[in-house]
Each structure stands twice: as structure tokens, then as C-alpha cells.
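Deliverable D5.2: sample structural annotation.
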Amino acid sequence: MPRDTAGSDADHNQLGEHVNEPIVSLRDVSKAYTRGKQSVPVLQDLSLDIARGDFVALMGPSGSGKTTLLNLIGGLDQPSSGQVVVGGQRIEQLGRGELAKWRAANVGFVFQFYNLLPMLTAERNVELPLLLTHLGKAERMKRVGIALQVVGLADRARHKPGELSGGQAQRVAIARAIVADPTLLICDEPTGDLDRRTADEVLGLLQTLNRDHGKTIVMVTHDPKAAEYATHQHHLDKGTLVDPDDGAVT
């Protein structure tokens, strides 16, 4: 995204300050969920660094902990133990309200099923994250227009989700994720509901956002072809990284 899509002053994202540090650093992170009286471990003593400007694919079988790891990085969940540092911020130490503000300022989310509000037009869906800022309506709509232009859907601004194809709906979701100009994009199976051709188009867009606009992308996928669009791959199995240093895509 062009810099003029970022908020000003307090609305500006905070992840661009520590340029020599990994943008994501996890240390000895464990996560367990409680089911009745039983504790079910999902992640176990996991450590991982993700460089600023990287495009990382997280892969592994169902139940390996991929989505849990993604949720910890994006501040949607908190670890049972360990440190989660994103952009120099220990996010596992933030309270619920602080974490919500941090996510709104710093992270864009893209999900498998788009999560668009069906009664709103594309431009209104994209505008939603900006309603949490102090921007006026004219500035919000300017940034919405730029975001839709970046994803190639400026001509679909007034269409509702039901009037869009699956690929177009996911592009709207990506526009919503980038409209506040976050440095970090969190993508959970972003092409899982798309056919191969449309999936490749969406993945190509993510690759462009990474290469040309400097977005750091962390993507969970089951699809080896989707993972090929990333610059690095990390494989999880039973809550631990498998060969974490052997992730470069060749």
C-alpha cells in the first residue's frame, strides 16, 4: 500500500520502528486448551523468528498447531507460557483492551471464508477497520478507494458480497486487511475456498503486496502449490517445528 493509506500520528501502525529486529519473535511458546478437567497441549516450547518483509507459509497436518500459532502471532490468542514479540512489543503481556487496539493498528487479517458483512457494499466492508480510527469520512473513503484499486476492484466498490465471485470477495477481504496500512498480514487458508486459477490470482496479489509494498505475510495453508508463493516455509507436527531451518523455497 502507498504510505498515504496509513493513519497519521496515533493512527499510524507501530511495526516499522525496529528495522534490524525480526518482526516476529517467539521464544519457548507453549499453548494448551482445557477440555473439562483435561489439559490438551497444542504447541510445545516453540521458538521462531520471522524477518521483516518475509512471506512465510506455515504448513502441517490437521491438528499440528498451525492456526493456533497464527492466532498467537496475530494477537487473537495468548500463550500458556513463553514470549510473543511482534514489532518489538511483548503482546502476550497486553490486556484484552490493549490487545484489541494493538491488532487494529498493526495487523491485517485474511480468512478462508472472507468474513464480509453481506448487507454492506465492498467499499463499506473495506471501511470497517478505519471506523476504529479518528479519520474523517472523506479521508476514510479516499483510503478505501486506494485499497480497492490496489486489489483491482475499484469498479466493484458498490457491489455487495453476494454480487461478487469468490475470488472477488477474497480480494475485498484483502483490501479490508490492508486499508489501515498494517505491516503484518495474517492469512488463514486464504485460498482454501477457491478454485486453482482463482487461488493463483489471490496468491499472486499477496506476493505483490509482499514484494512491492513491503508487507510481512504469515500464511497458514494445506496446499503445497500455495506455499510455493511464499519465500520461506515452516512445517509443524504435533505442536513443534520440523526442520525449521530448512524452509527456504527453491
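Annotation notes: The first strand starts at residue 24 and ends at 35. The chain has one domain: 3-20+50-75+105-242.
The annotation will be released with the project's public dataset once the embargo ends.
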